[in-house]
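It is time I had a proper look at our fold encoding. Can you supply me with one protein entry, sequence and fold together? It will help me judge whether the discrete encoding reads sensibly. Leave the record below and I will have a look:
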Amino acid sequence: MTILGTIPNEYREAVLFSMLALCWGSSFVAIEIGLEYVPPLLFAGFRYAIAGVIVFGYAAMVADRIWPTSRGEWLAVTVAGVFVIALYHGLLYLGELYVPGAVAATVASTAPILTAAFAGVLLPDERLAPVGVVGFVLGLLGVIAIVQPSPSALGGDVTVGAALVFASAIAFALGSVLTRPIDSQLPLESLQAWAMLVGAGVLFGWAGLRGESVAAIEVTPMALLTFAYLTLISGVFAFFLYFELLERSGATQVVLVGYAEPVVAMGVSWVALGYVVDSVTVLGLLVILVGFVLIKRNALRALLRSVLGTRSATTP
């Protein structure tokens, strides 16, 4: 990527990681702001319709193939579009009608833990070890700490919003696992583009069933700013960063971005909205992070060795 051309090679992965965390972490706050002007499912649908068209054009330039040619490839596109794009973002946007973006980002950070749990159940080669089960339980306890449920608060906004965001993390995790055994050779860029377009179509249909209307959209400078930011920066540009980081570092480091996102969201929420999360939410995030470390301990150990080996090799 030309944007990284002037950065020394040994720092590029750290820069990519930081930029991606900033783009995706700030998106939770941008969604919170934009929902004041645009109905949630239409908001998500328009975002991914436009982003999908742009990423499709990018795929046409860099990928060796953009059209799915087999039943497996169409199935992969459908599963990713329905679960990873439509259900994940639809439920997330609906959840942010009730909870702040910083809280939503923290609850959504359970997605990697849930992915490992679903993989352990659905994929025979990825069974969770006992330590992994402990990590999964810690992830759930982290969410409970954030929600702080009580009999009097079960129907409250925070509980409803957190439940919707947690459901979005479940959808993302399930979609990620279901695509793994599907026989597909479609390039990642093409798969992402098609998934965005399919997901946008599902979101528009869902918005119609929910009774959302284009007439309800308030076209204001802030609405246009948040929509442009989510579509072009947190959407298109962030996916370009994602493709680059995935190629350079592998899946484990990309997944770790999910634990930087809540920290970014907390900071942006404080600067932009004056919202400060309570200490229990921070504790919940730390518990979720510990759960992830327990589940992915082997992959993280290998990543750490790789990073330390690279640094020692480049040190004069």
Summary: The chain has twelve helices and no strands. The mean pLDDT is 85. The two ends are 27 Å apart (CA to CA).
